[in-house]
TrEMBL record:
InterPro entries: UPS_plant, Ureide_permease. This is Uncharacterized protein. Keywords: ATP-binding, Membrane, Nucleotide-binding, Transmembrane, Transmembrane helix, Transport. It is found in: Membrane. The lineage of its organism: Eukaryota, Viridiplantae, Streptophyta, Embryophyta, Tracheophyta. PANTHER family: OS12G0503300 PROTEIN, UREIDE PERMEASE 1-RELATED-RELATED. The chain crosses the membrane at residues 12-31, 43-63, 83-102, 109-131, 143-162, 234-255, 275-301, 322-342, 348-369, 381-401. It comes from the Eukaryota.
Length: 406
């Protein structure tokens, strides 16, 4: 089994995790904005997300071979002794799966960058505080908790950015010509040069609208699979906070699975070795996979948020963008694995510096999706304040990193 033994190595894998975890939401949102059903995307994503966990567990958890009690395959055979820790790991996978599912709809309603900044801030405020005490306070509290406070401020600023940007969009849409129809589930622009087009439609989406314009917003709405125009203003924030609560709990669950702070192994079977991070990550990903498969097959036939219904046959036939969904699953899987590896070495509270992912996702939101283009000065000021506070918070969390002795 390969183990990270120094704080520098832990910080390196945490930074790698930051890039991966910050990038995969952009791929999922890109597919949704191109019209691919979220149920199809999430089923594909879940397959490669589990594959990443298996690759990490076999390659690193079994490194060196032998019959060590800490090797991946050996620990799999010890489930009759270590099942209490396995349950913690699987509980973490379940809450992450729920969080990812809710977040996929929140990205559509509230935007990629704001959703991630609020979810990340909640994860740090709740999850990091729990992990600090679970880890026996190995992180420097005088640095860690000012960073947590900065994340809390960033969350409120993120909500303000969302509200301000929504007002900007409403003003843009109110100024569009009267012949544009804007309604939930129907947003079209008449195209006099198109006499029906593909499928016999008399209306066609506008061609190359400039990012940030009302026409651009309408173009996105017409193509995307989740229709957001006409929705309640609070729906996006409600989804964000539900996802944030779920994301806050998966880190502490993995912490308990690998370090047994509640002594469930000693109570059940004295002398049973703790789950190593690779074994815990495998069980974590397995439960996340099962939950995602069950829920998304259900949503194929009983969709929510106005998404069209589908079927297993339609899913298997849908190859449009499937390779991107597979890539997103691999990226997220390796990102989660690196985060847990860094947390096991330097403390899970410090590993929550991965929640800097909005810095990455905001970059993708601006570059790929044209978010915040032609917004008001108020929105830009709030966005700058939010990101500045977030950068300060992440720096403090990294500076608080400790070193686990066992």
């Amino acid at each position: 089994m390969w183990v990270i033994e120094d704080k520098g190595g832990a910080i390196a894998v945490i930074l790698a995790s930051l890039f991966f975890v910050g990038s995969f939401p952009a791929i999922l949102l890109l597919l949704e904005r191109r019209g691919r059903l979220p149920q199809h995307t999430f089923l594909d994503y879940s397959l490669t997300n589990l594959l990443a966990a298996v690759l990490i567990a076999v390659a690193l958890g079994q490194a060196g071979g032998g019959q060590s009690k800490l090797n991946f395959f050996t620990q799999l055979s010890q489930i009759h002794d270590n099942w209490p820790s396995v349950l913690f790991a699987m509980a973490g996978g379940i809450v992450l799966g729920l969080g990812n599912l809710i977040a996929q709809y929140a990205w559509a309603f509230a935007g990629l960058s704001v959703t991630n900044i609020i979810c990340s801030s909640m994860t740090v405020v709740i999850g990091t505080t729990i992990n600090y005490f679970l880890d026996g306070r190995i992180n420097r509290a005088e640095i860690l908790f000012p960073g947590v406070a900065c994340f809390l401020v960033a969350a409120f600023l993120g909500a303000s950015v969302h509200s301000s940007n929504a007002e900007d969009d409403e003003k843009k849409l109110s100024m569009v010509e009267s012949d544009v129809v804007v309604d939930r589930g129907q947003t079209v622009l008449p195209d006099p040069e198109n006499n029906g087009g593909e499928g016999g439609d008399e209306c066609n989406v506008i061609g190359q609208a400039k990012p940030g314009t009302a026409e651009f917003l309408i173009q996105i709405e017409q193509r995307r699979s989740i229709k957001v125009f006409g929705s309640g203003k609070l729906l996006g924030l409600v989804l964000i906070f539900l996802a944030g609560i779920c994301f806050s709990l998966f880190g502490p669950a993995i912490n308990l699975a690998t370090n047994d702070q509640w002594h469930v192994l000693k109570t059940h079977q004295a002398g049973t070795p703790h789950l190593v991070v690779y074994t815990a990550f495998f069980y974590f990903s397995l439960s996340c996979f099962v939950l995602a498969i069950v829920l998304n097959i259900w949503f194929l036939y009983r969709p929510m948020a106005g998404v069209p219904s589908s079927s297993l046959r339609a899913y298997f036939m849908d190859w449009n963008g499937r390779h991107w969904a597979w890539l997103a699953g691999l990226i997220c899987g390796f990102g989660n694995g690196f985060q847990f590896m860094g947390g096991q070495a330097a403390g899970y509270a410090a590993a929550d510096a991965v929640q800097a992912l909005p810095l990455v996702s905001t970059f993708w939101a601006v570059v790929l999706f044209g978010e915040y283009r032609r917004s008001s000065v108020k929105t830009y000021l709030l966005l700058a304040a939010m990101l500045s506070m977030f950068v300060l918070a992440v720096a403090l969390l990294i500076a608080s990193a400790g070193h686990r002795k066992t």
